[in-house]
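Quarterly update, task 2.4: tetrahydrodeoxyuridine-bound model.
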Amino acid sequence: MKQKEVHFIYEVYQSIKGLNKVDANLLETARSITATAYAPYSNFQVGAAALLANGEIVNGSNQENASFPVGLCAERVLISAISSFHPNTAIHTMAISYHNLNGESNHPISPCGICRQSLLEYESRLQHPIRLIMSGMEGKVFIIPNAAMLLPLSFTSDDLL
Ligand code: THU
């Protein structure tokens, strides 16, 4: 028997003030795009903003449904929009934020499991890491160098060979 270890390093900033201009702008965009969420059931409005390899910034927000499982997270709305409107374009960085109308919005959000799988697929498809900036409307900011780090021992297209 062997034991293996998985660990990853990420950056922690006390606030948006510690970020460089480009990252701060992307996070500000994600924060403001939370207002476009359709989240009448959870009151948890999520915004995501991606800086593409071609320099463009594209946004997405969560879109819920009276039939709850139909709802889509902001990250997957954004990935679908990028894939449709900017085909074969790598995502350099994605910032994610949220506005919790029922409580605080001051600790970093972390993508859900399904979104991690989606981010991973986009990373491997474009052969380009997606840097993730995670935060709320205020407070700490986490930066992770790529989405694969959030999903160790993942299921990928290699498993289908
Ligand atoms: N949600 C996202 O949009 N992204 C995440 O990373 C976590 C959760 C959404 C799904 C649902 O509309 C609401 O937040 C509450 O779970």
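Highlight for this quarter: The pocket of tetrahydrodeoxyuridine is lined by residues 39, 42, 44, 46, 62, 64, 71, 73-75, 109, 111-112, 115 (CB under 6 Å).
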